[in-house]
Here is the input.
Amino acid sequence: MRRIFLTLAVLANICMVAALVLGIQVGDPLAQGGADPEVNARIGTHMLIGLAALTSVTLVHALLFTYFMGTGRWLEETSTAYSLSSDLHKANQKLKYGMMPGIMLVFMMILATGCLGAVADPATAVSLAESTGITDATLHFSVGVLTWVVNLIVNFTQYIRIGRNTLIVEKVLAEVRRIRLERGLAVD
Here is the structure.
């Protein structure tokens, strides 16, 4: 799972960086009265890549949570079937539920980034510039960069948790192997 997660997380983060870079390259959305076709095309591309980033980041987190749910269920059933201590299953649950705050934080930040992108659109009647003291575009960009950094940190902690969960699974497999050998049962 580590290799799959790493590959997908890297791709999702590349998508986030692409959205950031494309956002920087948009230009002045008010050029030619908002009718500059090049600027409008760049805005459209930025929005599509931003939506792809939202989708891919969410998918990576959902996939990882599903992995932990599946291994947790397997650990629970195997521990019951072989009368193993519930400590390893509890350790898996601690790893799984320990990821939830980070996943939710990233998801909320991605949604906030998208909402601030809508506010940064000059055609929008809403503006946060007076209350924040910075332009809407700068606020959108700043939250976008912060979201990317937080996502990197969360991905790093998730990668570590996958490694710890792998050790738990290996311990259960070793214990099951030992029990099956003691009972004269096939192990492969």
Summary: DSSP finds five helices and no strands in the chain. The CA atoms of residues 113 and 142 lie 9 Å apart.
